Amino acid sequence: MTQQQITILLAIIAVVIVSVALSFVLTRKRRSQRLRERFGPEYDRVVRKERGVRRAEEVLEIRAKRRQKFVISPLEPAISSDFTERWRVVQTQFVDDPKGSVSEADQLVSEVMKARGYPMADFEQRADDLSVDYPILVENYRIAHDIALRHKKGEASTEDLRKAMVHYRSLFEELIELSLPERKEARG
Q1: Nearest to residue 37, comparing CAs of 65, 68, 60?
Q2: Which of 117, 34, 106, 140 lies closest to 71, judged by CA?
Q3: CA dihedral in degrees (57, 118, 79, 161; nearest 10)?
Q4: Which residue among 18, 48, 78, 188 is the one 20 to 30 A from 33 at the CA level?
Q5: How close are the terminal C-alpha atoms of the chain, in Å?
Q6: Taking the domains of the chain in order of start, what are their residue ranges?
Q7: Which residue, 176, 179, 170, 117, is CA-closest to 140?
Q8: 121-173 pLDDT, tens per residue?
């Protein structure tokens, strides 16, 4: 092999290596962008929790794959109407019994999730599952649940309980829709 042939061969190898590296970087960047758009604020929360982008993205992709296995169905109109009436009663009772209303709101949201087809594991797993379809509203769920837990310890004020009800209501209203939701993607 001549010196010129060796030089050409090394140049080709270098181009291939650079192309592969560039392809890898661009693929990872597109993956990150896709997940960031899909999960919005949940993406940032998971990155902080996992202390790194690579691990966070693995976690989010595992969530999305897990969610694909669920059969999420719209509620029948009569069931939706029943849940809506129960929600109205829970909200009405807030004035006289804020603590009881928040507990009932938490339970009612769980019942709607179950009726739609979400598995009823522990809270963190439910929130993770919900984050795939409702990446923005899942934060409402987390905040409301946190307030409910603080309430059980006697650490939540009536104003905190009111905020919990507002957070539960936003999630409840999305879950109760009669049709399958278009997944609420986060924006920016």
Answers
A1: 60
A2: 117
A3: -70
A4: 18
A5: 56
A6: 3-68, 77-176
A7: 170
A8: 889 999 999 999 999 899 999 999 999 999 888 899 999 999 999 999 999 99
Contact call for residues 42 and 186 (beta carbons, < 8 A) = yes
- How far is Cα 44 from Cα 111, in angstroms, rounded to an integer? 28
Q: What is the pLDDT of residues 92-127, one digit of tens each?
A: 999 999 989 999 999 999 999 999 999 988 899 999
SS3 167: helix
Number of residues in the chain: 188
Residue pair 148/164 in contact (Cβ under 8 Å)? The answer is yes
Is residue 185 within 8 A of residue 37, CB to CB? The reply is: yes
* Relative orientation angle of helices 98-116 and 158-176, to the nearest 10 degrees: 20
Please state the pTM of the whole predicted model: 0.77
